[in-house]
Amino acid sequence: MAAAVAALLLAVAPPARAELRVSDLDVFLNDFEVTVHTALLGAIPAAVTDGLESGIPTYVRYTVELWQFNRLWRDRLVTSKVVERHLTYNVVTKEFRVTSAKGETRPPYMTRELRDAQRVLSELRGLKLAPASSLDPAEIFYVRVRAETALNGDTSMLARIAGTAEQAMRQSDYRTIQRVQ
After folding, report:
1. 22-62 confidence digits (pLDDT tens)
2. Distance between CA atoms of 14 and 152, rounded to whole angstroms?
3. Residue 44, exposed/middle/buried by CB under 10 A (0-12, 13-18, 19+)?
4. Running DSSP on this structure, what letter comes out for residue 134?
5. CB atoms within 10 A of CB 137
6. Torsions phi, psi of 107, nearest 5?
7. Of the four, 24, 68, 83, 164, which is 20 to 30 A from 61 by CA?
8. DSSP per position, 135-166
9. 156: which residues sit within 8 A by CB, 6+ positions away?
10. How far apart are CA 99 and CA 107, in angstroms?
C-alpha cells in the first residue's frame, strides 16, 4: 500500500526546480517577413551542470510556431520551426562547445566560460518564420514558443522529476499585418 502511494505521489509531483523561462519574446512583422527574437532564462539548471561537466551533452530545443487566431473555431497553425542546439564540455581541453543540430546553420561556438556558452545556447535571434506576403493582412496572428532543455536529450517524466529536463512555453501578443495609424 505504501509503495502504491509513493508511486502515485511520484507520478503527480511537479517538476523539481522548474527554473526555465522563455524571456524577451519579440515578434517583428515588417513588410517582408515575420521574425522572432527570444531568450531563455535558466537554460542550464543546476542539476544539469554537474552532468555537463562530466562530459554528458545538454540539448536545448526551441519550437517556434506561428498561429492564426480564429474567433469562432480553434486557431490554425500557419508554420512551425524547430531549432536544436547542443552544449558539450571537453574534459581534457576544458572547453564548452555550442553546436547547431537542427533548424539553423551557424559555426560551432567554443569558449572556456560556462556563462558565454549559456548565453549563446539560450539566445535565438533573427529566426524567420514566414514571408509577410503569404499572410492575410486582415487576420490576427500570434507566435508561441516552447523551449525544452535536457541532459543527454532525455525529456521523460523521470528526468523532469530529477531536474535534468525542463520545458517552458510563452505566447506573444496578438498582431496584425496591417499598419495602424
Report:
1. 888 888 877 788 888 998 887 777 666 777 777 788 888 89
2. 21
3. buried
4. G
5. 10
6. -70, 155
7. 68
8. S-TTSEEEEEEEEEEEETT--SHHHHHHTSEE
9. 165
10. 7
Residue ranges with strand state E in 20-94: 21-29, 33-41, 58-68, 76-90
Give the three-state DSSP class for 44: coil
Question: Grid coordinates in use for 61?
Answer: 530545443
Q: What is the dihedral of CA 95, 38, 85, 109, to 10 degrees?
A: -30
Distance between CA atoms of 132 and 126, rounded to whole angstroms? 15
% of the chain surpassing 70 pLDDT: 80
Choose between 5 and 60: higher pLDDT: 60
CA 123 to chain centre: 9
Contacts of 94 (CB under 8 A, 6+ apart): 112
- Residue written as cell 549563446? 120
pLDDT digits (tens, 9 = 90+) for 152-178: 766 667 666 766 678 888 888 887 776
The answer to whether the CB of 177 falls within 8 A of the CB of 136 is yes
Provide the 3-class DSSP secondary structure of residue 9.
Answer: helix
Closest CA to 159 of 50, 49, 48, 84: 48
